[in-house]
Design goal:
This protein is of the alpha+beta class and 84 residues long. The chain is 25% helix and 14% strand. It has a domain of 47 residues.
Length: 84
């Protein structure tokens, strides 16, 4: 019987407050990996599960597990003229 080893992977997760309430979370390094929850804590639990399922699917299909490169988060202000 072949023994499985565990390896931990770390990814940046972005959380946003949802307009309808609660929060959404997504992982830019894993396209399509996103979830939501009523609280930040629930959303974090859900995104951890979503990442695990995503990675397990890649492994099952023999696809490589992405490694995240450097990431940055920023905010910019843009002036816009709005007609009166």
């Amino acid at each position: 019987m072949k023994r499985k080893s565990k390896q931990a992977y770390s990814y940046s997760v972005y959380y946003e407050q949802a307009a309808e309430g609660g929060f959404v979370a997504y992982v830019p390094a894993l396209p399509g990996c996103h979830t939501q929850g009523e609280s930040i804590e629930e959303t974090e639990r859900n995104i951890k599960e979503a990442i695990a399922v995503y990675l397990e699917s890649l492994i099952a299909h023999g696809e490589p597990i992405p490694e995240e490169g450097p990431s940055m988060h920023g905010r910019v202000s843009v002036p816009v003229s709005i007609p009166a």
